[in-house]
Design a protein that fits this description.
The chain is mainly alpha-helical and 125 residues long. 82% of the residues lie in helices and 0% in strands. The chain has 2 domains: 51 residues; 73 residues, AhpD-like (Up-down Bundle), CATH 1.20.1290. The protein is built from 6 helices and no strands. α2 crosses α3 and α4 runs antiparallel to α5. This is Carboxymuconolactone decarboxylase.
């Protein structure tokens, strides 16, 4: 990739960082290593936002819930900040946290059900 295109991508990342008010270390690193991947990710993110029938607040709720369930600290922090910027209150962020915890716990329970059934079956002697 030519240096001019790489510089353009890095400048776009810088503008996003200014808008978000925080550094985007991973995006910047990936842009340095493979600017084409960074560019493709930016394009995909833009398409998801532009073509979505969901409003910004709903998208922020979904993104935060997904971040919480996947338990990636950087994603949780970034999506909590994005949720507040999208208009969620602290109470709403707490509610998303509670619902995500409930769903994640339900998934663990459901996944363990098969094992539980196998040990509760009467033993054939």
């Amino acid at each position: 990739m030519n240096q001019e295109k790489k510089a353009k991508i890095l400048e776009q990342i810088h503008q996003e960082e200014v808008k978000l008010g925080r550094p985007m270390k991973l995006r910047r690193y990936l842009a340095e290593i493979n600017p084409n991947i960074s560019e493709a990710q930016s394009t995909a993110a833009k398409l998801y936002r532009e073509d979505s029938p969901l409003d910004e607040k709903t998208i922020a709720i979904i993104n935060l819930a997904a971040a919480l369930v996947t338990r990636v600290p950087m994603c949780i922090r970034n999506n909590m900040q994005a949720a507040l910027k999208a208009g969620l209150t602290h109470e709403e962020v707490g509610a998303v946290m509670a619902h995500a915890q409930y769903i994640a716990g339900t998934a663990v329970y459901s996944a363990s059900l098969e094992g539980l059934e196998s040990i509760l079956q009467p033993q054939n002697v």
